[in-house]
UniProtKB/TrEMBL annotation:
Organism field: Desulfuromonas acetoxidans (strain DSM 684 / 11070)
UmuC domain segment(s): 7-188
Site residues by UniProt (Substrate discrimination): Y16
Gene behind the chain: dinB
The name this protein goes by in its record: DNA polymerase IV
Quaternary structure annotation from Swiss-Prot or TrEMBL: Monomer.
GO biological process: DNA repair; DNA-templated DNA replication; error-prone translesion synthesis; SOS response
Length: 380
């Protein structure tokens, strides 16, 4: 019989903002927003817990965040510093296991199933990891411990900041039954609205539906919902995998026609992708803009640059042009996404020997604008 899996999900608390408060004592205890200044078309990358009390959250337009909290202090992102701290944290993880699956600069799964650490307790190890992170970086993190990735990730968000939540196999059924449906992996805003219309508000409601009915209602995703409602998630922690693309997308809570709003959302996606490119030490020649309209028709527009892309600014310079060449705005949009492909390790100019091809109808010499990674500055 296979041993019971022991999975830990570690999630740093308000990572970028916490690093800024650590490095700049004058920011401590104050509402801090990491992102573009309020008089720009920037977005919130992350914010401190003091700022979250005002309803501010990541991907929100900086101008709106300012209206919610005029006394907030806006700080330009310092990606290189965040990467350095992320490497410190990764080194702590490696002291306990080789099976580490990073999701971004500030979160990762760890598989301790076959660990030879003594005591061989995932809970004990998670507690020690949190203590070491705090001692070595002066930052806090939260952890979730369970027997699969779904439960471990949900658990890490239960008692933030600096929380540790354990869900044992015996506790899983009761925990899932009371879990709000929006907290389920794969349930975005649109899916949540559909489930609420069906009377599915929590795990106990989802459990009532047979698999065939969930597949009818939600397609192949329905099979996944059926399994996680029963605490079944066999996805492994993948330490090494060859990536063909890196991307991010978001389904909007309301259809929009305003292109400035669309650019704000795309900028937030580009910021996240930049962090992932840095983490995997890669760059990419091809960027693809994905648009789904209100009638569910989907289009993609791609561009292959003559130099590899690695920053959000470079992505947005091209994404802005692609958006202008689409019907977005004339038609209402419900989903936006960005994907980078044609990846190249490091930041060299040879993507595995494949020559970059220009996208028809577009120049490959679009100059990137200057937006992030400027010297640290606080805007009052």
């Amino acid at each position: 019989m296979e041993p019971q899996r022991k999975i830990i999900h570690i999630d740093m608390d308000a990572f970028y903002a916490s690093v800024e408060q650590r490095d700049h004592p004058e920011l401590r205890g104050k509402p801090v927003i990491v992102g573009g200044p309020p008089d720009s078309r920037g977005v919130v990358a992350t914010c401190s817990y003091e700022a979250r009390k005002f309803g501010i959250h990541s991907a929100m337009a900086s101008s709106r965040a300012y209206r919610l909290c005029p006394q907030a202090l806006f700080v330009r992102p310092r990606m290189e510093v965040y990467r350095q701290v992320s490497s410190q944290i990764r080194a702590i993880f490696e002291h306990y296991t080789d099976l580490i699956e990073p999701l971004s600069l500030d979160e990762a799964f760890l598989d301790l199933t076959m660990s030879d650490r003594q005591p061989n307790s995932a809970t004990w190890i998670a507690r020690e990891i949190l203590e070491r992170i705090h001692r070595e970086t002066e930052l806090t993190a939260s952890a979730g411990v369970s027997y699969n990735k779904f439960l471990a990730k949900v658990a890490s968000d239960c008692h933030k900041p600096a929380g540790l939540t354990v869900i044992t196999p015996d506790q899983a059924s009761d925990f899932i039954a009371q879990l709000p449906i929006r907290r389920f992996f794969g349930v975005g805003k649109v899916t949540e609205k559909k489930m609420l219309r069906l009377g599915i508000t929590c795990g106990a409601d989802l459990l009532k539906y047979p698999e065939t009915e969930l597949i009818r209602l939600f397609g192949k995703q329905g099979r996944f919902f059926y399994r996680i409602a029963r605490g079944i998630d066999e996805r492994p922690v993948v330490a090494h995998r060859q990536r063909k693309s890196i991307g991010n997308e978001t389904t909007l809570s309301e259809d929009i026609r305003n292109r400035d709003q669309m650019l704000t959302i795309l900028s937030a996606l580009a910021e996240k992708i930049e962090g992932r490119l840095a983490h995997y030490q890669t760059s990419a020649y091809t960027i693809t803009l994905k648009i789904k309209f209100s009638d569910f028709q989907q289009v993609t527009l791609s561009f292959t640059n003559d130099q590899p892309l690695k920053s959000a600014d470079e992505m947005m310079a091209i994404a802005t042009t692609l958006l202008q060449d689409s019907a977005a705005g004339e038609r209402a949009v419900r989903l936006l996404g960005l994907t980078l492909s044609n990846l190249v390790s490091g930041h060299t100019s040879d993507p595995c020997g494949q020559l970059p091809l220009p996208f028809p109808g577009h120049s490959s010499t679009i100059a990137p604008s200057n937006h992030i990674e400027q010297p640290h500055k606080v805007y009052s």
